[in-house]
Amino acid sequence: MQYWGKTFEDGQWHHLRRHCIEVAAVMKLLLQSDPALRDRVSVLSPLEPDHTEELLVYLACIHDLGKFSLCFQHQKPELAVLNGIPEPNGREHHTLLGTRFWSAYRLYRNTGCESARIFNPIAVAALAHHGSPVSVGMQKPAGLKRFFGPCADDALQFNDEAASFFLKHDFPAGLRDESFQSLSWAAAGLFILSDWIGSNDIWFGPDSDPTSISDYWNEAQKKAERAVRQSRILPAASADTKSFHQLFQYLSKDMSPSSLQQAVIDLPEQHGPELLILEDLTGGGKTEAAVLAAHRAMRCGVSQGLFIGLPTMATANAMYSRLAGTYRNLFKDADSSLVLAHGGRALHDEYLDSIMPMGEERKSFEDDGGAVCHSWFADNRKKALLAPCGVGTIDQALLGILSSRHQALRLLGVSRSFLIVDEVHAYDAYTGHLLANLLTFHAAQGGSAILLSATLPSVLRDKFLNAWSKGRELAGADVAPFAPEQGGFPLLTRLQDEALQEIALESGRQINMPLECVHDEDEMFHSLVSVHEAGACGCWIRNTVADAVAARTRLIEEFGLPEKDVMLFHARFTGLDRMKIEQRVLEVFGKESVPEQRSGKILIATQVVEQSLDLDFDLLLSDLAPMDLMIQRAGRCHRHTRDCRPRDYKSPLMKILMPDPVDEPDEEWYSRLFDIGQYVYKHPAMLWNTARLLKDKGAIRLPEEARELVESVYGPGVEAPAVFDEQELKAFGEEVAGKSLAGFASLDFSSGYNSNEGQWDNDTLTPTRLGEESRQLRLLKFENGKLSFWASSGGESVTVKDCMRSEVRVSAKKVKQAVNKGLEDDVEELKSRMPDKGRWCECLVLHEGEEGMWSGQAVDINGDDVEVLYSSQTGLEVV
């Protein structure tokens, strides 16, 4: 009989046998063309390299055995009738049927082994190649008869043909049930990748003629070679050794490497996986040091690219712009791809402009100096981590160790890259636990990584070192015991299988930030008024959006500052407005800003500015926050050397709004001043210790006091007034629950791909962070009798960009459901034209009011009516 494997819009179809052979050809070419990948796979396999390759190519060839089923063939009834396929008696997905077929017909016997459990991990990785594992089950052939009928004989014949053609070696004795568990993760990613490339009609067009493997194999390999070459999936070659200034051409020629950067340059050649931890001040050149380390690993053949994971989309955008003009110095090929990987990348015009259509070559790099991204990496966010160079939120990598569809593809991409994680102190207990597990997976699969921080508590450093060591042990490495001892700062920590090395460094930067403790909010406002009048610039970092909005409103309405001089930056703006504000903030307060831009400008912001954004203020104000964040915020004051600061602001100063850290505080010590902020920072003892230490010190002096400041708040045995015990116990319980949830949610490398069955979500639903449940609002405008997006591109068709530029996230407690009274049909019609049909959001209609304020109606979690207000100046508010 004839079997279709792929169909096309014009009615043509591609034979199932051909598709399976093509996917096998892609798999073989990936392994043979990428020696580093072949080596990593071999380390995880109990077989010899050639034998491992044979097994993977064979399984790739039978990955779609389930498509021989009657029910799959009848998904196209006209083809099933044309090809003489009988009607099915039941329906099941073809991946489940393929896996059950493998077990029921004992196909593992082609290997000469009698135990199904030995091969189940890798068989499930191949046969359940649609992104999540399925149960092998205990099905017998009779139980599959209603699904396969007479087609079972053809499926068996094809399997026997594939086994005879590809499996040339006898399998060794002594294989155990867990023998292929470690290999199954990398294999799952390779099967998905091979199938995605082998399913692309650009390279594998319709051909309905059946063929034997032997007759078609050479032609399939030629097609696979073209597909792999044009997809750019093979690693880009590293550039030859380059000097510091050749790699970072944006730096001044007379600028020497910092001590941290020089320490990385001086490291010996890398011969295997390793973990580096770099601790230094903000602005100390940690990013350049990390890129130097990545290039070293690439030159030594240990890594094949790099991915930089950051805490937020704003910091990822800033890093992308920073790398765009220089990353190509790391590679021999001038058109190696740089990918931006986060949920809002469709809003980033610079990135979108860099995407090249398939098959095109870009030739004039010298003219524009910009980045380039080949379209195959850009057309699906799940492929982004496969690019040779990537920047994004760390969430994109964390999805590789969660029960998220196609996580194995992300994991495969991360394993090829040198993983750089910035601001590692910035995550809660849940995300921190996930990051530790990611390091375990990455180490087990032969990757290398570097962690960057200015304020890393020793307990976290030890946690990450132990997670890495565990991964190396899972890879079968002989890991030497280690015990961290060094308490210096700055510090370079290097963990290899053989030993732990700790290198104390001198800091090239000193921070002596005088502090002024303020207990009255009015004083903060008067300070900003003085900044404005003096022609200086200042920033007040507030702990909540509500406090930030209120502060801006009061500065304008009560203190009379011009609206144009008081900027507001927080996370509750639509994608369009937030990108505009972020760009404006960088222009006014960034490194290249000039006095004319900065004069009299005030920024009221939330935590969005405290990490990785290169901003510089003449005066910095801050609400009290935990110590590590206070240190981060201090780095935004007098960050750059400027000769033109106004007279009274030539010296740095940070004013902190805080309650007085008295010896006997009451339970409301923090919440009395920060009514909403108490729900953001839930450890009053930590805050009291931070306030007490900062008050006693009178300044933040770095690097000499960096360890003391951090360990005196986060270290073991830190004491605080007993009045906080109950609140601390509650917060501790939430953290323990978060860690437990992270342990439950994240995957277990040692168990193998097939053992992690259960609820696998779409990657847009799988949580990489804990916090208050939120809802995505997609804002629509109703004006002149017409409904449109808040940020419409103006075209007739609805694009992903239209949707994302119009979205803003809000607490699910505040908005449960939009109420678009009288416009329900219009909203449904617009949703029908949206790429996602509006499935993952609430579409809220806004009507224009006075002074640029728009409003809409909704109900909250209690079913009460609420009004939603939105302005491009102040963002979203629910009243």
Describe the fold and architecture:
About 1% of the residues have low confidence. The strands form five sheets. This protein has an eight-stranded mixed β-sheet, sandwiched between helices. Strands 20, 21, 22, 23, 24, 25, 26 and 27 form an eight-stranded mixed β-sheet that branches. The N and C termini lie far apart (66 Å). Helix 1 packs across helix 11, helix 3 runs antiparallel to helix 9 and helix 13 packs parallel to helix 14. The chain has 32 helices and 27 strands. By secondary structure, it is of the alpha/beta class. 39% of the residues lie in helices and 15% in strands.
Write the layout of secondary structure elements.
Blueprint (H helix, E strand, L loop, with lengths): L3 E4 L5 E3 H18 L1 H10 L4 H13 L8 H4 L3 H6 L11 H11 L11 H12 L13 H8 L2 H16 L14 H18 L14 H19 L12 H4 L11 H7 L9 E5 L6 H14 L6 E5 L2 H12 L13 E4 L7 H6 E2 L8 H4 L4 E2 H4 L10 E5 L1 H4 L8 H10 L1 E4 L7 H16 L3 E6 L4 H17 L16 E5 L4 E5 L6 E8 L2 H13 L4 E4 L3 H13 L8 E4 L5 H15 L5 H4 L3 E4 L13 E5 L3 H8 L19 E4 L26 H14 L1 E4 L3 H9 L10 H21 L28 E10 L2 E4 L10 H6 L1 E5 L5 E3 L4 H9 L9 E7 L5 E6 L5 E7 L3 E4 L1
Helix pairs in contact: 1-3, 1-10, 1-11, 2-10, 3-9, 6-7, 7-10, 10-20, 13-14, 21-22, 21-30, 28-29
Structural class: alpha/beta
| Biggest β-sheet: strands ordered side by side in the sheet | 5-8-4-9-10-3-11-12
Overall body shape: globular
Beta content comes to 5-15%
Query: Unreliable segments (pLDDT under 50, ≥5 consecutive)?
Result: 363-367
The end-to-end span amounts to 66 Å
